[in-house]
TrEMBL record:
Entry-linked InterPro entries: ADH-like_C (IPR013149), ADH-like_N (IPR013154), ADH_Zn_CS (IPR002328), ER (IPR020843), GroES-like_sf (IPR011032), NAD(P)-bd_dom_sf (IPR036291)
Domain of life: Bacteria
Sorted UniProt keywords: Metal-binding, Nucleotide-binding, Oxidoreductase, Zinc
Co-factor(s): Zn(2+)
EC number: 1.1.1.1
Alphabetical list of PROSITE patterns matching this protein: ADH_ZINC
Protein name: alcohol dehydrogenase
Family per similarity comment: Belongs to the zinc-containing alcohol dehydrogenase family.
Amino acid sequence: MRAVQYRTIGGEPEVVEVPTPEPGPGQVRLRVTAAGLCHSDSFVMGLPADQYTYGLPLTLGHEGAGVVDALGDGVTGVSVGDAVAVYGPWGCGQCHACARGAENYCTRAAELGIQPPGLGSPGALAEYMLVDDVRHLVPLGDLDPVATVSLTDAGLTPYHAIVSSLGALPPGGTAVVIGAGGLGHVAIQLLRAISGATVIALDISDEKLQLAKELGAHHVLRSDDDAAARIRELTGGVGAAAVFDIVGAQATIDLARSVVAIGGVVQIVGIGGGTLPTGFFSTPMGAAVRAPYWGTRTELMEVLDLARAGAVHVEVERFTLDQAPEAYRRLHAGTIRGRAVVVP
Ligand code: NAD
Ligand code: ZN
Ligand code: ZN
């Protein structure tokens, strides 16, 4: 089968021919119907050798959807032909966090060497992929896999961050979304769907700001030196009850810190490497700072239900497997509208 692999540190992803995997006991093989490209892939491929922990060659793709194609020994609960989405943050299935579906916070995954598909285990950017357990499959029903696949990360990750902010974000409060790319453009729709917040979206690209406006942001602002003052103005001086920094660079984190309201929350979703000093004299009274990771299994089901209800969708640019390297270059250059999705 063909697969898109990262093969040498600092190299470009390559389309290569590899053996089609056979499902072992408990595993499910999917014929991949769609795979999304995430900025985290660019981050991983930008790591120097001494910080790279994902193995080589790495078949990329941690947003996956497919049709069940073959079952390993002992697998029950799914049938060949079922259309499914893959829950990516695989955990042990046994610890306290996993037991409540929060495998993204599995306390034993590192110790057991469990890694998500595309981030250590072979990922979805291939004609076929293996999934280690049926509990990592969520039925798609009649949802279109190409339109839906990115909800497994670009939807799930902001959903998880937003749900855990709702206590600080009353109707009428302001939510700031920094970065209106793959995750951000879904975050805006999620906020409109499940909160009564006024949404202010920031980006450095006019095209992304235009998209943010079309998707329901009440205000859009360029992410520059005037942004903090504009947000204060728009909130009558109060600031933002919740800030979702989906870039995470030092400049955006500094902005987040300067606009968060008393009692508000900053969710650092982007992995741009910035830090936010937190303390009595550093952040507003009662403000919380959190760096969430991906989302839970039940939250993925909820995001898919929101899509079924028509409340959220992903703006998709389609690519073939052969075009995946080009799609990664476009993602790196910041010119993808919404999400790049590969259809093998
Ligand atoms: P993306 O490239 O699709 O979108 C990033 C957006 O940020 C682009 O629209 C870009 O124009 C904008 N941007 C860049 N610099 C900016 C700035 N200074 N101010 C405002 N906007 C700016 O990326 P994505 O796939 O949506 O990922 C976003 C971030 O989230 C990445 O850092 C990614 O690694 C991270 N991520 C984290 C998790 C998690 O679990 N915490 C999960 C997925 C992705
Ligand atoms: Zn991702
Ligand atoms: Zn666990």
